């Protein structure tokens, strides 16, 4: 079993300054399993990922923090080091260069840095890397399009929350209900009305 | 004779007499484990007594027992079965006082000579028992320090037969002997050392392990309340975290040499971890911790070397003791030789003639260069 007290400390520490760092961690799907978390990072400014919010699935192995956490993008992203198919990440600190002094927060911040500084020479997705090296403008356009299409949902979620709150539902309840139906506004409204 | 009996107070780490104790402070000496109360026929502890209940024909301690700082308790054992032999001129000379055998001196109570304080004290008969075996001390330096006063309160106050020590400003106890400068110095030194240890312990309380994010000295398990110092850098970890990380199996995907042997914080490679209860604040303190750890290991026999029966994978750089059963230490047989292809080889079991032929070879080589010039 992994170090529960350390994970709890990390969660409070990370969420304390999420407005500044642009990364946050929550329990996966609002569950109670500390080994399955969901990280959120904002796309770095002046990159094709600006304005996007990217969700990352985090699974903690039993050896954590002596083994690296397993991280994978849930949000689809167009990046040479992230698989466009399944969101797998190629980053040395999540593999052989992991150190127990790294935390979930520092790992997420590293992912943010990876978004702003791709490494096409050590790719995870060969198609994207080839495009990055040979047709850079096309790469930027595609990446921006993917960000608009897949990573802006959370902005929409804020909007949905605002609308539902205006209907007279308490904000916390609206958020958790939206979470439980994966952000579908109509389903959330149905649920809120029936409860 | 009494010098060869181990001091009971010393055994418990609480002898206030130091070098002036009439009993031995050498662990190799035998302790007198015979119950003095049993000799008199009354030991209230009975079978639970920690001392031996055997009859001895004559009580060995003709001098005072080491517990005589409270003479009214043990004074019966002071009965002397032989006339005291004291060379008076020697005893009177204060300059020689340290070399005088205290056990003979203290049995000199029958002599007309009494020092000033015993005169004052004669009036208090409740303190001196009926046998009157209270030992007379010739010089102030011979008078033992009063342990009641050292602990804070002496019931006899001014009239106490023992000397009341001066206040030690560090530990706040009246335990500095006014007439034994060596002992004073030792005590102050010890106090300063203890004080320093306490200070660094206080400082260490706040230090957090960068892996478990807990304060190292506040970990739940007492065994984990220890730092693991890395030889090459100054990042604090608890011993269990850093050992756990370094013993991670390479199959987990982490590289042994670039990740596991490195400091989790700065990734500097360290080849060993030193356990320590305190965290250091200066380089010298770290050096001291490392040295004392290495010295401790050097006194423990290496389980791989196994008194010469096994082979130790660490060879001559092993921290543990490599000694044979007869106490002889292993000789270091490794020698580095420059091989012909320029690389360095380690020669095992090198013989003298090889060195000779090598040096001859070198001499020729130099001669050849000199001639060529």
UniProtKB/TrEMBL annotation, chain A:
Residues of the active site: 90 (glycyl thioester intermediate)
ATP-binding keyword on record: yes
The EC number(s) this enzyme carries: 2.3.2.23
PROSITE patterns: UBA (PS50030), UBC_1 (PS00183), UBC_2 (PS50127)
Single GO MF descriptor: ATP binding
Classification via SMART domains: UBA (SM00165), UBCc (SM00212)
Sorted UniProt keywords: ATP-binding, Nucleotide-binding, Transferase, Ubl conjugation pathway
Record Pfam families: UBA (PF00627), UQ_con (PF00179)
Gene3D superfamilies named in the record: DNA helicase RuvA subunit, C-terminal domain, Ubiquitin Conjugating Enzyme
Domain UBA, residue spans: 156-195
Recorded superkingdom: Eukaryota
Family membership noted in the UniProt record: Belongs to the ubiquitin-conjugating enzyme family.
Protein name (record): E2 ubiquitin-conjugating enzyme
Organism per entry: Canna indica
Automatic annotation (TrEMBL), chain B:
Keyword set includes Zinc-finger: yes
GO annotation, biological process: protein polyubiquitination
GO molecular function: ubiquitin protein ligase activity; zinc ion binding
Regions of compositional bias (Low complexity) in chain numbering: 60-69
Domain RING-type: 209-267
Domain C3H1-type stretches: 1-28, 29-56, 140-167, 296-325
Annotated Polar residues bias: 70-80
InterPro entries referenced in this protein's UniProt entry, alphabetically: MKRN-like (IPR045072), Znf-CCCH_4 (IPR041367), Znf_C3HC4_RING-type (IPR018957), Znf_CCCH (IPR000571), Znf_CCCH_sf (IPR036855), Znf_RING (IPR001841), Znf_RING/FYVE/PHD (IPR013083), Znf_RING_CS (IPR017907)
Xref: SMART domains: RING, ZnF_C3H1
Keyword Repeat appears in the UniProt entry: yes
SUPFAM superfamilies: CCCH zinc finger (SSF90229), RING/U-box (SSF57850)
Disordered, as annotated region: 60-81
Keywords noted in UniProt: Metal-binding, Repeat, Transferase, Zinc, Zinc-finger
Pfam families reported in the protein's UniProt record: zf-C3HC4, zf-CCCH_2, zf-CCCH_4
Zinc finger (C3H1-type): 1-28, 29-56, 140-167, 296-325
Protein name per UniProt: RING-type E3 ubiquitin transferase
Organism of derivation: Canna indica (Indian-shot)
Organism lineage: Eukaryota, Viridiplantae, Streptophyta, Embryophyta, Tracheophyta
């Amino acid at each position: 079993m992994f170090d529960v007290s350390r994970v709890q400390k990390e969660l409070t520490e990370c969420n304390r300054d999420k407005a500044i760092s642009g990364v946050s961690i929550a329990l996966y799907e609002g569950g109670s399993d500390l080994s399955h978390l969901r990280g959120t990072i904002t796309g770095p400014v002046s990159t094709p990922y600006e304005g996007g919010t990217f969700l990352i699935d985090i699974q903690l192995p039993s050896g954590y923090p002596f083994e690296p956490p397993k991280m994978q993008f849930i949000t689809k992203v167009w990046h040479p080091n992230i698989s466009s198919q399944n969101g797998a990440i190629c980053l040395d600190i999540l593999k052989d260069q992991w150190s127990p002094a790294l935390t979930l927060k520092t790992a997420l911040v590293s992912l943010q840095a990876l978004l702003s500084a791709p490494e096409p020479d050590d790719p995870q997705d060969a198609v994207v890397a080839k495009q990055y090296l040979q047709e850079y403008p096309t790469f930027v356009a595609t990446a921006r399009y993917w960000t608009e299409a897949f990573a802006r949902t959370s902005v929409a979620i804020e909007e949905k929350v605002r609308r539902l709150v205006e209907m007279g539902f308490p904000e916390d309840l609206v958020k958790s209900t939206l979470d439980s139906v994966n952000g579908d506004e109509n389903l959330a409204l149905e649920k809120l009305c029936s409860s | 004779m009494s010098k060869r009996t181990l001091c009971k107070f010393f055994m418990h780490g609480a002898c206030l007499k130091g070098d002036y104790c009439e009993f031995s402070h050498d662990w190799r000496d035998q302790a007198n484990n015979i119950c003095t109360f049993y000799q008199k026929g009354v030991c209230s502890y009975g079978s639970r007594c920690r001392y031996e209940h055997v009859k001895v024909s004559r009580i060995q301690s003709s001098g005072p027992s080491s517990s005589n700082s409270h003479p009214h308790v043990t004074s019966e054992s002071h009965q002397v079965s032989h006339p005291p032999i004291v060379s008076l001129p020697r005893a009177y000379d204060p300059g020689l006082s340290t070399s005088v055998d205290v056990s003979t001196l203290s049995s000199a109570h029958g002599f007309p000579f009494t020092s000033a304080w015993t005169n004052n004290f004669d009036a208090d008969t409740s303190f001196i028992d009926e046998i009157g075996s209270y030992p007379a001390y010739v010089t102030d330096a011979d008078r033992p320090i009063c342990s009641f006063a050292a602990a804070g309160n002496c019931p006899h106050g001014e009239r106490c037969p023992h000397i009341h020590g001066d206040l030690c400003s560090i530990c706040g106890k009246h335990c500095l002997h006014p007439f034994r400068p060596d002992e004073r110095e030792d005590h102050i030194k010890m106090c300063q050392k203890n004080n320093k240890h306490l200070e660094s312990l206080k400082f260490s309380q706040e230090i957090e392990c960068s892996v478990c994010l807990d304060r190292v000295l506040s970990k739940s398990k007492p065994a984990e309340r220890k730092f693991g110092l890395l030889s090459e850098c100054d990042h604090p970890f608890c011993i269990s975290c850093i050992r756990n990380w370094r013993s991670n199996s390479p199959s987990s995907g982490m590289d042994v040499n670039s990740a596991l042997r490195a400091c989790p914080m700065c990734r500097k490679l360290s080849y060993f971890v030193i356990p320590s209860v305190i965290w250091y604040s200066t380089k010298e303190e770290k050096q001291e911790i490392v040295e004392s750890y290495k010295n401790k290991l050097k006194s423990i026999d290496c389980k791989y070397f196994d008194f010469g029966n096994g082979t130790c994978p660490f060879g001559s750089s092993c921290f543990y003791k490599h000694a044979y059963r007869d106490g002889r230490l292993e000789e270091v047989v490794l020698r580095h030789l420059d091989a012909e292809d320029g690389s360095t080889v380690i020669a095992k079991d090198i013989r003298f003639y090889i060195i000779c032929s090598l040096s001859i070879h070198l001499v020729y080589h130099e001669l050849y260069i000199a001639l060529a010039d």
